[in-house]
Design a protein that fits this description.
The chain is an alpha/beta fold. About 25% of the residues lie in helices and about 25% in strands. It folds into three domains: about 80 residues, Alpha-Beta Plaits (2-Layer Sandwich), CATH 3.30.70.20; about 160 residues, FAD/NAD(P)-binding domain (3-Layer(bba) Sandwich), CATH 3.50.50.60; about 100 residues, FAD/NAD(P)-binding domain. It is built from eleven helices and 26 strands. Strand 7 and strand 8 form a beta hairpin. The longest helix is centred in the first third of the chain and has 29 residues. The chain is globular, with a radius of gyration of 29 Å. About 30% of the residues are buried.
Length: about 475
């Protein structure tokens, strides 16, 4: 009897759910759901050329961030314009530089204008933006620019297109020279520009890599005759990334560096933290935030170069590049090279800005600080008001071992990263750093420096001068 009751209950429950399902199915047939509309418009991805729907942040095929090219695509303000005709300014956010710290969101007086979405800042409500520009100064990575409409106010970088090619076909610019100083962005650009060059070579029938018995690509033979598929100038983050990618694709390439590999990184103070988020390095993998110090990055570069045999010639600077038929002739003091493509992955460290004052030629004057902890008990003058100058002042003043003076010609440090500004204010309040605003160096002597401070001359004892005013 119990079994019969259980069967009846189970049958009733089953009948109920089957009847409900059939009813829903009948309703769906009578009232079909409208199909999703196709995207209104799309544009090809600058990296892989697949169509990307308008408004998409990333390419669904290769994962490239569309904001990587927003500076290259933007119009440039070329002359003075009546401010009244421009309307309200608004921030333009470069997602490739944004690290998602939220500093811009916190300082914006107009609540809800900026928001963090998927770890990146976005302009959520453009109509609320009043043009305070506090977000611009708060951003630690310079990911925001102020614009009127779609026109950037200032873009002082070489003109390149979506694939980083200049108006001279076959010549590309990536990294710091192209306006992207962040290490992660430089590495991405180096990889992407060689992606494009490989594709162009393949379309022209010039990419025929060697392969092993399993079909894997082998590096190009070192004795292969010229021209090179690509010649890379510079072995910093962008140049090394381009070199590793060319090596990975089996391209016939060569990299020339006037100094050492990653020279810009080598000249940073010891333990300087260089990364804000993980980066993917060709032939290595992902380097995580916790490893993003100067020492970790240099160790990675040196290990990869040693293990892969990537072809970099150091201490060989390029003196000229000129068109030669369909390619280029690249001259150095040691040799002449022929190449189908040239990638300029140059930094700016080679041309530091000078003070142009008497005594600047003394050996105690330097334009970069390498190892701050080697200075102890010294009178040190740091000249500059940017992040590099403030970081140098903080490093040499650490522990109170030196008498550090920071000379800045301006009134405030509004363009500093928020963390650097906070640390400078703490050090000044504690007496570890003497900050001289509205001051300029007039003369440098072997044991002293003379400054003009708001029109008043003052001499300070001095043993070392670090001029960190850009380049």
């Amino acid at each position: 009897m119990d079994t019969l009751i259980s069967v009846l209950i189970a049958s009733a429950v089953t009948f109920f759910f089957v009847r409900r399902y059939l009813k829903q199915l009948t309703t769906a047939k009578r009232n079909p759901q409208p199909k999703a509309a196709a995207p209104v418009s799309s544009a090809p991805c600058p990296r892989c050329s697949r169509p990307v729907p308008e408004g998409s942040a990333f390419c669904s095929a290769c994962g490239a961030a569309m904001a990587m090219w927003n500076v290259h695509r933007a119009q440039v303000k070329t002359g003075p314009t009546d401010p009244a005709s421009q309307g309200k300014p608004r921030p333009v956010i470069n997602a490739s530089l944004c690290i998602g710290c939220g500093g811009c969101v916190d300082v914006c007086p107009e609540s809800g204008t900026l928001e963090l979405v998927n770890g990146k800042a976005i302009l959520a409500h453009a109509d609320r933006c009043a043009g305070h520009a506090k977000c611009i100064t708060a951003c630690p990575t310079s990911a925001l620019s102020l614009a009127f409409g779609n026109v950037l106010q200032t873009v002082r970088v070489p003109s390149v297109n979506e694939v980083f090619e200049t108006n001279l076909r076959g010549v590309f610019i990536v990294g710091e020279l192209g306006g992207m100083g962040l290490i992660k962005t430089a590495i991405n650009e180096g990889r992407m520009v060689v992606d494009h060059i490989r594709k162009r070579l393949e379309e022209g029938g010039h990419w025929q890599p060697r392969r092993d018995e399993h079909g894997a690509i082998l590096p190009a033979a070192p004795d292969q005759p010229q021209p090179y598929d690509v010649l890379i100038v510079g072995a910093g983050p962008a140049g090394l990334s381009a070199s590793l990618t060319a090596h990975q694709y089996g391209l016939h390439y060569l990299t020339l560096e006037q100094g050492e590999t990653a020279a810009t990184i080598r000249n940073y103070p010891r333990h300087k933290f260089l990364m804000a988020e993980p980066i993917d390095i060709p032939l290595y993998g992902t380097l995580y935030v916790g490893d993003g110090t100067k020492e970790s990055l240099l160790s990675v570069w040196e290990t990869i170069i040693a293990n892969t045999g990537v072809r970099v010639r150091t201490q060989e600077g390029v003196t000229s590049i000129r068109r030669d038929g369909d390619g280029f002739q690249v001259d150095t003091a040691k040799a002449h090279y022929l190449a189908r493509h040239v990638v300029l992955a140059l930094g700016k460290r080679g041309t530091p800005r000078r003070l142009n004052v008497p005594g600047e030629e003394l050996s105690k004057v330097a334009y970069r600080l390498i190892e701050a902890e080697t200075y102890s008990g010294n009178d040190i003058l740091i000249v500059g008001g940017g992040d590099s100058a403030v970081e140098a002042a903080l490093a040499t003043a650490k522990g109170g071992k030196n008498r550090v003076t920071l000379s800045y010609r301006g009134d405030d440090f509004s363009r500093l990263r928020a963390r650097n500004l906070e640390m400078l204010q703490e050090a000044e309040a504690a007496g570890r750093i003497s900050v001289l605003r509205r001051s300029q160096v007039v003369r440098i002597a072997p044991t002293a420096v003379e400054l003009d401070i708001s029109g008043v001359r003052r001499e300070l004892p001095n043993e070392f001068v670090f001029v960190l005013i850009g380049g």
